[in-house]
Amino acid sequence: MTEVKVPDYSNLGDDGLPLCVEVELDPKKDFKQNAKLCFKQASKITKAIEKCAPLLKAQEEELKVWKATLAKVEGPQRDFDAEQVKQLYEELCAQRFIRRPKPKVPSEQVQQPEENKWRRKYGKDVDRFLSPNGLEVLAGRSASANERVSFELTLKDALWFHTANGIPGSHVTIRAAASEVTDEDLEFAAALAAWHSKARNKMWVPVMYCKGHQLRKPARRRIGQVQVSGNYCQLDVRPTLPTDS
Questions:
Q1: More confident residue, 120 or 20
Q2: What is the 8-class DSSP label of residue 151?
Q3: CB 185 within 8 A of CB 136
Q4: Beta strands 136-140 and 172-174, pairing class
Q5: Residue 204 in contact with residue 165, Cβ under 8 Å?
Q6: Strand ranges (E), 109-223
Q7: What pLDDT score was predicted for residue 124?
Q8: Whole-number Å distance between alpha carbons of 133 and 181
Q9: Which residue stretches of the chain are H helix?
């Protein structure tokens, strides 16, 4: 059986006799198991009614109060002044019936500092500089940042810099085509590479540079390691950091 009709003694008809109610049964269970399941469900319903009834009554009382308040606000007499309306608004917000509008942020605060913009663009461990002719120059400050500078941020036709003769240092690139780079920009980026190296305290540091398409990832390498294919150029520069950095 999947259902059975039983008398509901809590619901009497006009003749005083209990009306019938259909109870769903689990055909995989026997009579005792179904009866036990029904009593369990009935117990849950009873407990829910006991918990919800006081809450429902309280909500109904609160609803009466709010309806009376609304009638005063919208009524022809307009009994509420501005201060009372403000208090009503605060109470509605406090009880989360309405949401406060988000405060408007001044336009000067919306515009975030320039540094935050390029930090999000290039990464927190990548330093950004401007060459004498206004070209972006990027330098990594960690192995993962060097990896990003070399293989994600260096353009194929752009120049890439690193200290020569096995001197450990940051990977540096000019974010522009090599044809747009002047000798002044070239020395600027090379001096940055020398500054971001273990030879920072030397008077002169050898720095090599090549184009982005010459960079390769060597086999069995550590993060940040780069191999240069083909010929490259080299120059000696003084390690220098821009005074406005």
A1: 20
A2: I
A3: no
A4: antiparallel
A5: no
A6: 126-130, 136-140, 159-163, 172-174, 205-211, 215-216
A7: 82
A8: 8
A9: 31-74, 82-94, 107-110, 114-122, 143-148, 183-195
CB atoms within 10 A of CB 161: 30
> Burial, 181: exposed, middle or buried (Cβ in 10 Å; 0-12, 13-18, 19+)?
buried
Q: Name the burial class of residue 169, with classes exposed (0-12), middle (13-18) and buried (19+) by CB atoms within 10 angstroms of its CB.
A: buried
d(C-alpha 6, C-alpha 219), whole Å: 80
Q: Which amino acid is at 112?
A: Q
The overall longest dimension of the chain from CA atoms, in Å, is: 112
Query: What tokens were used for 74?
Result: 């919208």
Taking the C-alpha atoms of residue 87 and residue 105, their distance in angstroms, rounded to an integer, is 25
Q: DSSP 3-state assignment of 173? A: strand
> Is the Cβ–Cβ distance between 216 and 227 less than 8 Å?
yes
How far is it, in rounded angstroms, from Cα 121 to Cα 130?
Answer: 16
Place 2 in a pLDDT band, splitting at 50, 70 and 90.
confident
Query: What is the average pLDDT value for the chain, to the nearest integer?
Result: 86
The number of beta carbons lying within 10 Å of the beta carbon of residue 225 is 13
Q: Which residues contact 132 (CB under 8 A, 6 or more apart)?
A: 182, 184, 185, 188
